[in-house]
Every structure is written in structure tokens, then in C-alpha cells.
Amino acid sequence: MAGQIKPKLQYVPCISADDTPAPGRATSGVAGGLAICIAADEKGSLFALGDKCPPINQPLSFGKVVDGCIQDPVLGTKFNLKTGVVAEGDWCTSPIGKLLGGLFEPSGVPVYPVKANKNVVEVQVDVNYKAAFESQYWSGILDAQGKSNGKYY
After folding, report:
1. Percentage of residues in the chain with pLDDT exceeding 70?
2. How far is residue 116's CA from residue 107's CA, in Å, rounded to a whole number?
3. Cα 110 from Cα 95, distance rounded (Å)
4. SS3 state of residue 129
5. pLDDT tens-digit map of 114-138
């Protein structure tokens, strides 16, 4: 196995400025290999969160932004835009959410620093995250990619 890959935080482009969501809306992007939800509150302030809603990982970017939270469109969970934590009493509130939500402990989504300039919206992420994760793959005769050297057939 390779040596440990250390985290490296830096701002990377996520979406173009033309794709910035309107107030009360959200959109999706990718930064450093991570799925990111860019949400705009009612005043137009931007927030960046992980784009996978727990517990079943549907896109958070399909949600509505209201009162400092973004709501999962399927299960009804509301996540605080600043902290990513579940709003008090708002874990899996939709009818289907009530069926599934009781099977899982409430969990939030990650939040990331975000900044916008005239051309692009940037999000600060660990640019080494993907490489560090993949460095833990076992490599051998039947590795995850098909060949013992990690290459595809």
C-alpha cells in the first residue's frame, strides 16, 4: 500500500457563475470529485453542502430552500444551510420518510466554505480525498478494478 495521503484543502471550481441558483433554489455541481449542492437562501447568500441526503443518498440539490434550511424532496428532512445538521424535529417527515426514517439514526450532511466570483462558484474541499480513499483499495489477483496492477482489462 502507498504511504498515507495527507488532506489538502483548497478552493476549486464547482459551477459556473451563470448556473448560480436563484434565491430559494439549489443546483448541483462537482468539486474535487465530490457531489456538491449549491443552495441560495432567500437573500441570495450561497451555501455548499454534500449533495447526498441521508439515509438513501438522493440529491439534496432537488430540494427547496426555506428559513435557513434545505428540505430533502423525497423524505422531507430539513438540513441547516450553515451547519448541515438536521433541523429540530425534521428528520424524515414525509409519508415515505416516516416509513424509512425510523430505521436510521438522524444524520446531517457535510458543509463546505463557498465563494463566488464573476466567472465561477468555488468550494473549498480536500483535493486529496479521492486519492486517499482509493489508496486503501486492496490490490491483488482479484482487485476492485479487474487486474492485479489496478488497471482495467
Report:
1. 87
2. 28
3. 25
4. helix
5. 999 889 999 999 998 878 877 776 6
